[in-house]
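Let's do one together. I've listed all components of the complex below, 1072 residues spread over four lines.
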Amino acid sequence: MRYRLYRLLFHHDAHDERNFDLALILAIVASVLVVMLDSVPGIKLRWHTQLYIAEWLFTVLFTAEYAVRLWAVRSPRRYATSFLGLVDLMAILPTFLSLLFPASASLAVVRILRMLRIFRILKLVKYSDEAGLLIQALLRSRHKILIFVTTLLTITVIFGSLMYVIEGPEHGFESIPTGMYWAVVTMATVGYGDISPGTGLGRFLTSTLIIIGYSIIVVPTGIYTAELARTMRPARRSVRCLECGLIDHESDAWHCRTCGRSLPDPVE
Amino acid sequence: MRYRLYRLLFHHDAHDERNFDLALILAIVASVLVVMLDSVPGIKLRWHTQLYIAEWLFTVLFTAEYAVRLWAVRSPRRYATSFLGLVDLMAILPTFLSLLFPASASLAVVRILRMLRIFRILKLVKYSDEAGLLIQALLRSRHKILIFVTTLLTITVIFGSLMYVIEGPEHGFESIPTGMYWAVVTMATVGYGDISPGTGLGRFLTSTLIIIGYSIIVVPTGIYTAELARTMRPARRSVRCLECGLIDHESDAWHCRTCGRSLPDPVE
Amino acid sequence: MRYRLYRLLFHHDAHDERNFDLALILAIVASVLVVMLDSVPGIKLRWHTQLYIAEWLFTVLFTAEYAVRLWAVRSPRRYATSFLGLVDLMAILPTFLSLLFPASASLAVVRILRMLRIFRILKLVKYSDEAGLLIQALLRSRHKILIFVTTLLTITVIFGSLMYVIEGPEHGFESIPTGMYWAVVTMATVGYGDISPGTGLGRFLTSTLIIIGYSIIVVPTGIYTAELARTMRPARRSVRCLECGLIDHESDAWHCRTCGRSLPDPVE
Amino acid sequence: MRYRLYRLLFHHDAHDERNFDLALILAIVASVLVVMLDSVPGIKLRWHTQLYIAEWLFTVLFTAEYAVRLWAVRSPRRYATSFLGLVDLMAILPTFLSLLFPASASLAVVRILRMLRIFRILKLVKYSDEAGLLIQALLRSRHKILIFVTTLLTITVIFGSLMYVIEGPEHGFESIPTGMYWAVVTMATVGYGDISPGTGLGRFLTSTLIIIGYSIIVVPTGIYTAELARTMRPARRSVRCLECGLIDHESDAWHCRTCGRSLPDPVE
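Okay, and this is what the predicted structure of the assembly comes out as:
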């Protein structure tokens, strides 16, 4: 029975395992909704008791689930110190702590991290391959992306400082970090408008920064798309040539392109 | 004659059928324009009578068209309950209802849904293939996009809550849902500026959120582009030529493109 | 000598022709700069006489150029009614008209259309191929883009009307056209913030609209990139099979894939 | 020992060379942080002495490094006039100059250019290939990008002037350059909202500009992605196999992948 529970909680293949996953997703989303609604002044005033009860219901539920998980796994310690185990603990702890200490807003909000539990379900088999593909393409682009981010950061620092000198505190550029915040907001085309240039030179510099940002925004998109397209193209097969040892061949190769020896059975 | 009308109303191939489509598009756009103009205070004051007459003209026209459609189709019931049939009904109902009830603004605005009728025409043969390609690529990317949206939602929830705690109501972050609205507006680089961070820590977090949003905006673009590029690439089939051994052929090939020998059964 | 002038003015290959192009670009940019500076109150006050003289200098220069062009071409009439001919005329007319009529601001600003003359130079040989590629990919995507724009417009109309009903004039949504303006500004992630939602429901709808806009922004990028990638891939050759008439073959085909007959010389 | 120092300062392969690079990156980032913090009024007030000491520490450190670099290289003159040499000098000069002249804000901020020194380290071997690929794709797209930028600039000039005439100074469009600043901010979807249209016609024009901007933003992304995808695709060569006639081979193939026969001379 312990093994049965273990499968139910940690696997996602059989029919009842999937039903349990669905129920858990609903519970997670509902408990996150409770935290959210509790932060809206109007709703808190009218429905406070109901939300308080719902909160404790979910806490008891998640506590029970946490206990069963601890009991069902082979090594409770390894589970408790794993990332998902810590997230599971964090989902219940704040409510209990609020009994000991007067509930501060920040403590209550930690409960929102329950949202992270949703990734437990997303470890579903059918999704992991797709996610793997996405992450693989990201990882393979990491060198290119690091160069890109360094360039971006340097531009941010330089333009943030320039605007601090040119525009100064009277137009909202109070310090270099504020200028950098403005440069990030501008380059990423967010553009709140809480800080915006007031002088002619400042506006010219802003236009320059926007055009630079506009030009290099295509770089990460291009990197990632090209990498993903390459990952998705099933154009090669890995088979070791018995003569020269070359492994990377085109998918329709019958003979090794280096030594000409016929390759092992091409039908996979 | 009933069949003739049926073809005129539901098909788009012959010359007169296309002319009818064009007239219908013009009528739809004009009727939507009437609803729009009627909502502009200045115009309503001066041209109210004319707009009122035009409105009833279009309603009578669309009612006649609806009646003819009902009469021309084989199964009036199936048409009346289809999506496009309901849209056709919704295009005329609000004007008649305004006779019974005093015309409220919301009732009048429902008439804008006439706009949806435009998709009736877009079911044209030559466009459906192209649209099919676009939607097919979207459907094939749905697993990847679901993972992406979940990640996005989680980031939104966490950053919205963080900013609610850090910035608080005095900077506009009145509740967690408001914080989430801000996070969506920020990540998608819209950046209204109606709510924007005021503290140093808040600005640092905002910069982080923007850079995260900036980094993962490339993911859906990459997914969709790569998928679309794959969809648009002429299909290939793997069959071994018995003469020269070439495996990679176009899906419509009957003969090997290298040696000319006819290929084994092309039916997969 | 007339032919010599014709080449100088309309061709871009020889050394002196290119020098003339460069001088013309400089003159165009300088004359546009004069119009711009003339609109800045501070500068106009101090440098009005100089700008006035410069303006007449450029007008005389462009008038002379226009006259020479009219004289050098074979058919002055065809040149005068061509797009570039009209642009050339528009570059000089407003200044002369300002002698007859008191110079209104709008008349003066028409001179800015001189900027369009820059495309005369961009008809350079080496650029036209590249531009052709870009425009060809755009044209080939036009059906897909039309579907996309219709969908976008429909979403704009519906969300603009919804927000007009929900938010109303007190939050800036004065009419449906204003609502549509807001929807365009939001979907394209511009987000001025001059109009922004004030109610909870309005903010929820805004988030929905942003996510929809965010999701479909990838569609045109995907379409264009995939189309461009296909245009740039030199993977096919056009040669007519002598047996069955098939023209579209892979670039390395020796035999027709339909009938197996060997194709005419594959070495281009 | 001079050669040893030279390697330590200018190469990035051996273990200790990498450790030195890491230490240098940390020193650069820390010294930039000092300049930044010094610009925040609150921090400057409380920690001024400490920041002053840290500033001089870094200046002495970088001066020593500069001196050693000058001594270690074969041609001190060539190093001193190289781009990275000038950046190295600029990193120390402002602090010394502040002793002679009373430290103005702009002089102090020049120290932020130390950030550029970080690119010295990014010349690491393993990154240069990746950066080379990115820049190569950018360079190969330069003709296309130039056409794109000219089109963009023309649209900016025309729409900026139009809005200056239509909206006028009362809505913030004080001059044509201001209008162009607004057009850049709008087309790039930054949208600060410091200047936004107030009239109906102005809003219609803005929507048009946004849709134009939205349509052509895909062009550079498409160009760059397609170019990058082409750069990343393994190169191929066209040579006819004497046995089976296959033409399309990988650039490093010695034997035909279909029949195994050795290919004609692989040197192109």
